């Protein structure tokens, strides 16, 4: 039986962080966590690009343009959508998620999902580096693992 499993080592990889600026007080912690994780796993800072979009809703189009360039081994989408009193949350979170998945499939590139979709500011803060870890760092690990896994599958 063959087993394929990615590792957190991709020293030759190039990574694009596609970042929604809205809720920047949370998002900047996600960006720092992702960059720190990539660097700690052997990625040179010169192989990391940060591309900023206005918000989470715009991330799929920006990710699509980045993927189309075929310059990066993985895209890490980072942002924060915090529920309010209107249905706006569902629209933004749903379309962002769906759009990023479409980019991954259309361009055959891993798109790691580090977009917080939370009910409160407190939950966003917890997931950006306090009680619940840093989801930006977790998304970076996912990207590293996917680059490694896809390289293994391509080699076989």
Automatic annotation (TrEMBL):
<dbReference type="InterPro" id="IPR036467">
    <property type="entry name" value="LS/RS_sf"/>
</dbReference>
<feature type="active site" description="Proton donor">
    <location>
        <position position="88"/>
    </location>
</feature>
<dbReference type="Pfam" id="PF00885">
    <property type="entry name" value="DMRL_synthase"/>
</dbReference>
<comment type="pathway">
    <text>Cofactor biosynthesis; riboflavin biosynthesis; riboflavin from 2-hydroxy-3-oxobutyl phosphate and 5-amino-6-(D-ribitylamino)uracil: step 1/2.</text>
</comment>
<feature type="binding site">
    <location>
        <position position="22"/>
    </location>
    <ligand>
        <name>5-amino-6-(D-ribitylamino)uracil</name>
    </ligand>
</feature>
<dbReference type="GO" id="GO:0000906">
    <property type="term" value="F:6,7-dimethyl-8-ribityllumazine synthase activity"/>
</dbReference>
<comment type="function">
    <text>Catalyzes the formation of 6,7-dimethyl-8-ribityllumazine by condensation of 5-amino-6-(D-ribitylamino)uracil with 3,4-dihydroxy-2-butanone 4-phosphate. This is the penultimate step in the biosynthesis of riboflavin.</text>
</comment>
<dbReference type="InterPro" id="IPR034964">
    <property type="entry name" value="LS"/>
</dbReference>
<protein>
    <recommendedName>
        <fullName>6,7-dimethyl-8-ribityllumazine synthase</fullName>
        <ecNumber>2.5.1.78</ecNumber>
    </recommendedName>
</protein>
<keyword id="KW-0808">Transferase</keyword>
<dbReference type="GO" id="GO:0009231">
    <property type="term" value="P:riboflavin biosynthetic process"/>
</dbReference>
<feature type="binding site">
    <location>
        <position position="127"/>
    </location>
    <ligand>
        <name>(2S)-2-hydroxy-3-oxobutyl phosphate</name>
    </ligand>
</feature>
<feature type="binding site">
    <location>
        <begin position="80"/>
        <end position="82"/>
    </location>
    <ligand>
        <name>5-amino-6-(D-ribitylamino)uracil</name>
    </ligand>
</feature>
<feature type="binding site">
    <location>
        <begin position="56"/>
        <end position="58"/>
    </location>
    <ligand>
        <name>5-amino-6-(D-ribitylamino)uracil</name>
    </ligand>
</feature>
<keyword id="KW-0686">Riboflavin biosynthesis</keyword>
<feature type="binding site">
    <location>
        <begin position="85"/>
        <end position="86"/>
    </location>
    <ligand>
        <name>(2S)-2-hydroxy-3-oxobutyl phosphate</name>
    </ligand>
</feature>
<feature type="binding site">
    <location>
        <position position="113"/>
    </location>
    <ligand>
        <name>5-amino-6-(D-ribitylamino)uracil</name>
    </ligand>
</feature>
<dbReference type="InterPro" id="IPR002180">
    <property type="entry name" value="LS/RS"/>
</dbReference>
<comment type="similarity">
    <text>Belongs to the DMRL synthase family.</text>
</comment>
<comment type="subunit">
    <text>Forms an icosahedral capsid composed of 60 subunits, arranged as a dodecamer of pentamers.</text>
</comment>
<dbReference type="GO" id="GO:0005829">
    <property type="term" value="C:cytosol"/>
</dbReference>
<dbReference type="GO" id="GO:0009349">
    <property type="term" value="C:riboflavin synthase complex"/>
</dbReference>
């Amino acid at each position: 039986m063959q087993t394929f499993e990615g590792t957190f080592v991709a020293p030759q990889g190039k990574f694009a962080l596609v970042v929604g600026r809205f809720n920047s007080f949370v998002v900047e912690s996600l960006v720092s966590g992702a960059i720190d994780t990539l660097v700690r796993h052997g990625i040179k800072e010169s192989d990391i690009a940060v591309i900023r979009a206005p918000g989470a809703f715009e991330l799929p189009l920006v990710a699509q343009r980045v993927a189309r360039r075929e310059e990066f081994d993985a895209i890490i989408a980072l942002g924060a959508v915090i529920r309010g009193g209107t249905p706006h949350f569902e629209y933004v979170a749903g379309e962002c998620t769906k759009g990023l998945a479409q980019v991954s499939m259309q361009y055959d590139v891993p798109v790691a999902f580090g977009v917080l979709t939370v009910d409160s500011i407190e939950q966003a803060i917890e997931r950006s580096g306090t009680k619940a870890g840093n989801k930006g760092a977790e998304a970076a690990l996912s990207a590293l693992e996917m680059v490694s896994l896809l390289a293994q599958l391509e080699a076989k």
